[in-house]
Amino acid sequence: MDARILLLGESNVGKTHFGGQLLGRLNQEQGYLRMVGSVGSLAGYEEVLNALNDGRAAQHTGASQYIESTWNVVDPDGMAINLVWPDYGGEQVKAIRERRAMPQAWRERVLDSDAWVVMVRVHNMQVSDDIFSRPIGDLSSAENRAHDTFELSEQARLVEFLQWMLFVKGKGQLKAVTTPQLMLVLSCWDELPEQEASMRPSTVLERRMPLVAAFLRSNWEADSVKVLGLSALERPLSEDSRDNDYIDQGPEQFGYIVDELGNRSKDLTLMFKPFMRAG
Amino acid sequence: MRECSYSKCNVPDVSCYMGENVPSKCKYWQEGAGASSDSGGTRSAGTEALFPWSGTAMGTGELAFLTSRGEARLIAIAGAHNAGKTTLLAAWYQLIGRSGSISGNPFAGSFTLEGWEAVGHNLRWQGNRPSFPPHTSSGAGRAPGMLHLSHRQSDGELCDVLFADSPGEWFQRWAVDKDAQDAEGARWLATRASSFLITADCEVLAGDKRGPARSALINLIRRIGTERGNRPVALVWTKADIQISDTMRNAIREAARLVMPDIVEFCTSVEGFEQGSVKVSGADSMRAVLNWSVAAPSRGFEVRAPQLSDGDPFFNYGNA
Question: Predicted ipTM?
Answer without folding.
Answer: 0.89
